[in-house]
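Forum: Protein Structure Q&A
Topic: Joint prediction for protein chains with partners

I've read a bunch of threads here and the consensus seems to be that you should model interacting components together rather than docking separate models afterwards. I'd like to see that in practice. Below is the full input, 660 residues plus whatever partners are listed. Could one of the regulars post the assembled result?
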Amino acid sequence: MQKNSNLENVLRGVAITAIILFFMFPILWIFLMSFQTNETILRVPPSPFFEPTLTNYRSLISGKLEGSTATLEIAFMSNLYNSLFLSVTSVTVGLILGVPAAYAFARLKFRGSEDIAFTLLSFRFAPPLLVLLPLTIYFQQIGLADTYGGLIWVYQLIVLPLILWIVRGYFEDIPADIEYAYRIAGHSFWATFRKIALPLAGPGIAAAGLLAFIFAWNNFIFALVLASADKQPVTVGALAFITASGINYGQIAAGIMLSIAPTFALALYAQRYLVEGLSLGAVKG
Amino acid sequence: MSDVMLDLNSVDKFYGSKGQGVHAVCNISMKVMRGEIIALLGSSGCGKTSMLRMVAGFEAVSRGKISIGDREIHALRPVERNVAMAFEGYSLYPTVTVRDNIAFALKSSKFSATDVAVKVDEIAAMLEISTILDKYPSSISGGQQQRASLARALIRDADLYLLDEPMGQLEPQLRTLLRGRIKAYIKERGLTAILVTHDQTEANALADRIAVMEDGELQQFASPEDIKKSPANIFTGTFVGEPPMNVFPARASISEETVCLRLNENIDLSYPADAFSAELRASLAEMGDIVLGVRPYAVQRRDTGSLATVVVNQWLGDQSHIATNFAGGSLVLVEHDRTQLSEDEQIAIYLEPSDIHIFNSKTGMAISHGARLIG
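Posted by a regular:
Agreed with the consensus. Here's the joint model:
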């Protein structure tokens, strides 16, 4: 038996190492690439040893992409700013709309409440490409195409269902009697929501907000079609690295590192909330 | 100001859609007087908590009216009803200490901080929770949480106090002590309280009147003594009292000299006619089939009488509960001595006419208590 469990341990160790390598190696390789020039990246055979350089980062931050033949102006930093602005605003709007809605779905059982909640969730089922064409036409007609407002609106398709369903589970976990006790002691429905329900669902709201932020940050297709260059987030802006005169892998790698840094830091910092929030909220539903 | 504090007028509560939903409270009307303590007594799911929550305003009334004093309240929000409530699940605010939980109830009123502190200390002393005031709800026991929840309700200045199973989690000794203190607290201040419980002892000890409920219907609303002595129907008779009342189907035959209650082909209970009132005899003669009830404490053992076979004889430390086979059913009797009876032993049973309750076999309603017709 002892032998068996030793073997088990070894196998488990091998499996975990393989999984970590599989998932982390690309990130590690991109990280190394971001400190190299195209020459060292493309040499055969590849080697992890090289003389590091900061030129990739420097040219991204200055906005001047140096190709083999010419210098290209790119708006990488403004893309990064767009990503930040779009994600933060979308999540804020999503929380303002989604948290009270989640509370209503959790507490007030009204006719059709389940149908409405499910319809909102079903927005996540539809492939974005399916709605993009009609959406583009509508947006052009009502003047929302290529505006931050329009993008934030479309981003609600991503963040709102997520926030709604995670936070709803959290509200359902709070015993209703705690709120009743507060209300019967002379406080209004609104005061009870603010003073009792919101603080108790705090971790769930934080988790939902974080996850929604990551999803919004990673979105590509909506912004690609609905926004022009000066409104595009970093996910779309990265396309500019592929130019007619060649592909500068080092700069792409640096761009990737810069664009995943915020969500990566956020995920590391809030890992506990994320796990807790997702397992408590969404699973229960 | 009227003397009626709470008036429930034909109140109904349905859950779910019509036709397939649950009719949790059926057409209940009752008046609670100012300064009275009422117990809603019944088994789980009998509608007693639904009633309480309708009064508090957490459940909408499906039909009927509820008034507190002169105000109709069934359409008001909970905050406007001026009732205090202790919840069965305690429902303390987890983020603040026990002291703040109790004081919270007073924060929205006119009291100064020192007044609030004095009141909190006073009520905490009464409920034996002074030592845990600065702890958080998650770090105290269920019984302590329950008392904190009770304190939070009682400290308030309300027209009506609703207590949902307020002592279910307490150990028996503490329960007895607190029952006395809480009753004194409510009575000294002339408060009106409604208590929901499934514990008969609690209802008997605290309440001036008990409302016995079953299947959403009010079975009887009377003082604890009246409910014991004169149960309104078979349900109340068998639900209230420990051990429950013995009931047997019987057939009454009346002659000039005797009243004979036939339980089965072997057992006839014969009494001289004058042991039963003339009105009752007339009624029995007309009815024929009846249900006979007798409390276990009232069953007598004599040298001669109808025979019963002992099934179990249990000594509970202060009384013997003897279960027997009698007239094709089960008859339990209670004696205060340690009775020496073994299994399968035959004993002779005698039922005094004044201890017999008679019920209508079709409706289950009481016809007579102690050989006298009701009404």
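Chain B touches chain A through 25 residues (CB under 8 Å).
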